[in-house]
Amino acid sequence: MVRKLTIAAGAVLIAAASLAIVAPTGAAADRGGSTHGPCRYTTTPDEPAARPVPLPPDPHRTPDRGTVRVDVRTNQGKVPLTLDRSIAPCTVQSFVHLAKWRFYDRTTCHRLTTYPTLEVLQCGDPSGTGEGGPGYKYSDELPVGLDPAPTDPTGERKIYPRGTLAMANAGPDTNGSQFFLVYGNAYLRPDYTIFGTIGDTGLATLDKVAAGGVQPTPEDPAPLDGPPNLVTDLQKVKAHC
Questions:
Q1: Per-residue pLDDT, 16
Q2: Residue 87, SS3?
Q3: In the chain, pLDDT over 90 holds for what percent of residues?
């Protein structure tokens, strides 16, 4: 079942990962399908993995210092990332694990949003549908100290600034493999884990994809939300750590 979560004013929606079960090879798991470390990666039997991958390692001393450089090669250009262990150690650990297992290689970024208050490209689902995930989920590592969105009088929404790398989700503690890249403004409730930043070369690539717009449909010749017109494939994602 597709699960979507409203993340901006009006009818702006962003598809969150549908997560799924996979045998917990390479990580100790209890009978409930969870690892024993502080990250508690948990299998999701009702939502099968989009591509086979074991549970991530979950050491009791999860690395929480330093950064990880990730080279993302796409058919539209390079998108270098810097992951920050200090703000989201479990998320970085999972992302690096998925990259090492080539989970992201040869996948398509399935959603571009071009609303003035939500300028993001969403990737990380091997099925390309917005429903796929790695077969496990884990808890949020939510950001603090974000500036308030200027267009929200309630103060609930914050600014996810240009260059932010964050996780998509289907509600609290449902992180999996899908992530979004902020190329402009993103005014959101602080319900999405931020785990890194996008380099200047990557922002230039994202700007090109965004300038191409969203694929039109018979119902809407100029949509602001949907698959990008410039099909964007993650050809290779390599973590250096």
A1: 36
A2: coil
A3: 85
Place of tokens 């930043």: 197
Structure tokens at 208: 């090109």
C-beta separation of 110 from 128 below 8 A: yes
104 closest CA partner among 137, 132, 82: 132
Cβ neighbours, 10 Å, residue 177: 29
Set out the domains of the chain in order of their start, with CATH numbers: 41-55+65-240 (2.40.100.10)
Token pair in block for residue 123: 């990737």
| pTM (two decimals) | 0.88
* Cα→Cα distances 27→91, 138, 173, 197, 237, Å: 16, 14, 20, 28, 22
In one letter, which amino acid is 192?
Y
What are the tens digits of pLDDT across the range 58-98? 999 999 999 999 999 999 999 999 999 999 999 999 999 99
**Token pair of 185 as six digits:** 């403004």
Place of tokens 């998320």: 91
Percent of the chain whose predicted confidence (pLDDT) is above 70? 87
CB atoms within 10 A of CB 130: 21
Determine the Cα–Cα distance for residues 24 and 210; give it in Å rounded to an integer.
Answer: 38
